[in-house]
Amino acid sequence: MLPLLTDDAAVACCSPVTEGVLTADEAERIAHTFKALGDPTRVRLLSLIAASDDGEACICDLTEPVGLSQPTVSHHMKLLVDAGLATREQRGRWAYFRVVAGALEQASRVLRP
Amino acid sequence: MLPLLTDDAAVACCSPVTEGVLTADEAERIAHTFKALGDPTRVRLLSLIAASDDGEACICDLTEPVGLSQPTVSHHMKLLVDAGLATREQRGRWAYFRVVAGALEQASRVLRP
Questions:
Q1: Which parts of the sequence belong to the HTH arsR-type domain (chains A, B) (predicted)?
Q2: Which residues 49-108 of B are in CB contact (within 8 Å) with A?
Q3: Is residue A60 included in any domain, yes or no?
């Protein structure tokens, strides 16, 4: 089964930051997404995956460009997946990742002034 | 002097996350902005400031809505100012803050798929 690329539950909840006072719950959900984006390695990993053939990257191809061990990269990817910004599919020995365009779009929308 | 509302140095540097592999330097700058946004209190503070009269809020009016002490709110605001997402102006006893719309717009653009 293909990963669901339109899953944007992460920030689908929320009005834009500049469009009225956010509730504590909305702020919590928005911050969760941005916390995942608040690390340079994770930002690079998203750009590496998005730039891969067919928009999909094997964990085995992500370690070298960021210069980190596979467990460390796996940990960063887990945070991105938990935040809804990437999907993970296990195929045999390797995990494959895709960027969730809908979640990036939602996060982008929340910041639009 | 009015705060410079078009200051977008924070992420003006950077191409969108999904438009090619980011350099380590670009990823660092992008992550710095999103780290500042990766906290629910700071997200709420931005929305409170943006929703204030004339888009400006006194620190004295921000503590009660978020239920935190003034030093804690000041600390959160410092991180937002350092990331270029807000400006601070001291007038007499109080500091006044504004959201930097240009910085939010840049951060939004970086995430646009």
A1: 22-113
A2: 50-51, 65, 99, 101, 104-105, 107-108
A3: yes
Query: CA of B75, closest CA in chain A: separation in Å?
Result: 17
d(CA B101, CA A111): 9
Tell me the C-alpha distance between A48 and A62, whole Å.
7
Query: Domain range for residue B104?
Result: 23-111
Per-residue pLDDT of B47-105, as tens digits, reads: 999 999 999 999 999 999 999 999 999 999 999 999 999 999 999 999 999 999 999 99
Which candidate from B20, B34, B104 shows the least CB-CB separation from A51? B20
In a domain, residue A4? The reply is no
Which amino acid is located at A79 in the chain? L
CATH classification of the domain holding B76: 1.10.10.10
pLDDT at B7: 45
Residue B61 exposed, middle or buried by CB count within 10 Å (0-12, 13-18, 19+)? middle
Distance from CA of B14 to the nearest CA of A (A): 12
- Give the pLDDT score at B12: 58
Q: Does residue A103 belong to any structural domain of this protein?
A: yes
Number of domains chain A is built from: 1
- The three-state secondary structure class of B30 is helix
A21 with B104: Cβ contact below 8 A: no
Which residues in chain B are contacts of A105 at CB distance < 8 A? Answer: 111-113
